[in-house]
Design goal:
TIM Barrel; 39% helix; 8-stranded parallel β-barrel; 16 strands; H-NS DNA Binding Protein; alpha/beta
């Protein structure tokens, strides 16, 4: 394959590896699996999952991925070149890479002589040998290799001859892609442009092997996106980055900006055009899973990216969006927001109703009622993007067909710590079939005690509850600046063993917010149960 | 003056005008004055203060500025060209501009035929007349004029001949600077480069008047900084932007990135080199005044911009910062941070001890004990990256000099919801000076009730507590897959009015985790109080 004869750009996502180096970001294996499958559905062709062996989590992630494989994307395992002084076949570091069971492996190696000598404490010659041996070994094991040239631009500036030798070695050893990495993130676009142009020309002159090039940039000079675009204009065909630009220090190149820039502005093919509309929801879903507040001012996918304030702007943009918008927000699944009187959303409500199997049309006054209710709740801090089950309940409420399984009468939580011992006891009162049921349970925290008491109270009436589980629980403090008086938003994911759904609760009292979400989770599960309905799984 | 024969770049700050268009940003007159004087001290030569006449606040701001004038910077009033159909002298809109009393005025006019016809509802010829008349009138009143060519790049792409005519008109009328504005923010660097080059050449060929050019970009394609740099490389000598990239939609070009890129990487003169070290504190001060959370991952000035995690990274960067840093953080008043995490090695611990003023050396067995303790706690779910106060307490504990202010004996929380009414009551028992104190308080959630009870119990012994506040509260569910039995990590930020510090608590019981963090927050505040110690402010 000679990638640069095509108009295609291979997007390579490293949210799960380089992205998760972001300070304060910590993903569980379940989180990683959810993100990987979401990226797969977006249509990203390469998904770097981690460095198996560097930590137990990444080993297990790749095993789990073998059980729940990606549909279209290639999962990629990441590793360094072998250590100095032993062969790749002998180096135990490379075994977990093979066990990861991916067709593709990314190997990073040193381009910068300073790092070879000061970082690896080895010779320049041995570094070349490490690159060659590692790639050849992986090729002999049937793997396809992407070679990440770490510190490429800094290395090339300091010692171009040696830096070029590392790439020639990787190419001769059988790497299919050579990726120029701006590891320290400080290179500016005009330097990226000059170096990329010269290097591609030189390498093409020196070898007959068809080579494909990639770019991996960081945002330390706030030019990561421009740096990647510049490299593409010089002939690079793989772009590495992360969703929302997550990554250590100032982050990696942001795929949420790169994909629309490349595809909608520069005319390259990155992902299936019909998937482009999923970009905004993918960005928000991943920030939710990572439990990081989304950046409202993010380009393309941010809540404010197409927000217009009152006056001339608004009427101009309504007559002709071109006047104040660089792009149609709908193309990437975002929407124009008129900050004064928001007319948008109606079509969203209708689309959602259709997904939920609720019969609703634009003329129906209920449609506007739902929109009003939605705005009121969002204003209070609710958010339904990741809590569709709660949104569906809200819609059923509005159209008047919400089923009632039980009535919440009240709860009581007692939580005590004395001399290092903690006791938590919850009592709930629920009404079922006209009867009031009181039940109590202990727990290792107030929410698990409440959840246990509630199930005890209801399981005799609804035996299906015995199979329900809480599979995820997330808490976000809204307006954290208000300290412990701030509002809390809780997301609870429930499962009945084969379906999963998420509900939301909001309150200044974290126990109350959790209880709301737990209660709606049970209610929604019972709807699924009685209707035999196929829920759209969250991931 | 012919600006482009020099190496100087004129920085033009528009935080107070375009920046404050950011959704959710609202500055009082006092805020605006504080920011203006701070920018003046940083050494920014032009400070755009607002559009006097568009709102009363901006009129008053310029009057106040006449009483408290800037030391070095030029304050600039902003306004559009006069309205169609009357002369500039007759247009009441221009009177407040003159009353603002600035030497410099920025006038924006239409470059794009579409906007002239659809937006202004006038003729292309009248638009030229509006540009000419407005600039000539202001010149006749002794003002120096900067001409902002609104929608320059889009206008030029649609109708280059007309767009050029607008600039030729502005130049002939006496504008000293012509500023290319990418108003919709969607132009990419290679287009900025081509258009800027062609236009500057054409205008220089067509006139003998020396002209100076500027650039004004927005971040809708996430390339605002690169776009401005590109224009500079094509000969532009004024760069307009905002501190922290504030601005409507996705923001304006970020001066906190542009200034170090231009001055430290490209060798231009922007501000006095001795002032460059004020950049980080200026960024954080302005986010404080604007009451917006600082972006920890911002390039150059972010808290994480020079943060290092891994052990190998840390020892390499300590030997030679060049290995993993694109720039010396001290140059812009930021600093390297060694992030404490279980990837940390001994070198991280020693580096941290030194920052805390704790005497520790590598041979000391306590050093290994701290590392072991750290790993054990991180394994339990603690995380000290963002909770340095808790880590400092842990270190004092290990070296045996942790002060005791009070002893936690126990607490009790009662939380009840009945018929929609919620009651929360907390009781605490603490030991101070050999006495047991019992206190109770209500709250709108369990944590605020506990916090209130604890302060009540302690404030008689430690009156300083009365000034402490909880300023931020964050909750993260670890291993959310365990549902409501999952562990909870709580981060609490406390303040005494002039310093801020963060503490951490972990438990399966969210109330217990919060209580731990609140208790350590009070303890650390008391240490600061008694030692008169200067804490490293978090932001």
């Amino acid at each position: 394959m000679n990638a640069d004869s095509t108009n295609r750009i291979w997007i390579y996502d490293t949210t799960l590896r380089d992205g998760s180096q972001r300070e304060g970001m910590s993903l569980s294996i379940e989180d990683k699996l959810r993100i990987a499958h979401r990226l797969d559905r977006l249509g990203v062709p390469f998904i770097e999952g981690g460095w198996p062996g560097a930590n137990p989590k990444d080993v297990q992630f790749f095993w789990r991925l073998q059980e729940e494989p990606l549909q279209n994307a290639e999962a990629v395992a990441f590793c360094s070149t072998r250590r100095p002084g032993k062969t790749a076949a002998e180096d135990p570091m490379l075994q977990p890479i093979l066990s990861a069971g991916t067709r593709w492996v990314t190997i990073f190696g040193k381009s910068w002589d300073l790092h070879v000598i000061e970082g690896l404490n080895t010779t320049l010659e041995e570094n070349l040998e490490m690159i060659r041996d590692t790639i050849e070994f992986l090729r002999s094991q049937g793997r396809q290799v992407i070679y990440d040239a770490e510190h490429w631009f800094d290395g090339y500036k300091h010692n171009p001859t040696y830096a070029l030798k590392t790439l020639e070695t990787a190419i001769a050893a059988g790497a299919e892609w050579i990726v120029f990495c701006d590891t320290n993130g400080g290179t500016l676009p005009h330097e990226i442009s000059q170096i990329t142009r010269t290097v591609i020309q030189t390498l093409r002159q020196n070898t007959d092997i068809p080579i494909n090039f990639g770019i991996h940039t960081h945002n330390d000079a706030e030019t990561a996106v421009a740096n990647a675009l510049t490299a593409v204009l010089e002939g690079v065909r793989m772009v590495q980055g992360t969703i929302n630009g997550y990554g250590e220090r100032c982050g990696n190149a942001n795929l949420c900006s790169l994909i629309p820039n490349l595809q909608l502005k520069l005319g390259y093919d990155c992902i299936d055009p019909s998937h482009l509309v999923k970009l905004t929801e993918t960005s928000r879903y991943i920030s939710e899973v990572a439990n990081l507040a989304p950046d409202d001012h993010a380009a393309f996918v941010g809540l404010s990216a197409f927000a217009h304030k009152g006056g001339i702007h608004v009427s101009a943009v309504q007559r002709n969006p071109l006047t104040y918008e660089h792009l149609q927000p709908e193309l990437i699944g975002n929407k124009r927001r008129i900050v004064v009187s928001d007319q948008a959303g109606m079509s969203n409500i209708l689309a959602k109703a259709a997904t939920f199997g609720i019969d609703l049309n634009k003329q129906d006054p209920k449609c506007r009622q739902i929109l009003e209710k939605l705005k009121e709740l969002e204003n209070q801090g609710y958010q339904f993007e990741a809590a569709e089950a709660s949104f569906e309940l809200l819609m059923h409420e509005a159209v008047g067909d919400r089923q009632t399984f039980f009535e919440i009468k009240g709860f009581h939580v007692h939580c005590e710590q004395l001399e290092g011992m903690t006791n938590v006891l919850a009592t709930v009162k629920v009404g079922v079939n006209g009867k009031n049921i009181l039940e109590a349970a202990e727990g290792n925290g107030p929410v698990s005690a409440l959840d246990a008491a509630l199930r005890k109270a209801l399981v005799n009436f609804y035996p299906a509850l015995a199979d329900f589980q809480l599979t995820d629980y997330k808490v976000r403090i809204l307006d954290g600046g208000a300290g412990t008086s701030a509002k809390t938003r809780v997301l609870v994911e429930s499962s009945n063993g084969h379906q999963r759904w998420t509900t939301v609760g909001v309150s200044t009292n974290i126990i109350e917010a959790s209880y709301q979400a737990v209660v709606e989770g049970l209610e929604y599960g019972l709807i699924l149960q009685t209707q035999g309905k196929e829920v759209v799984a969250l991931s």
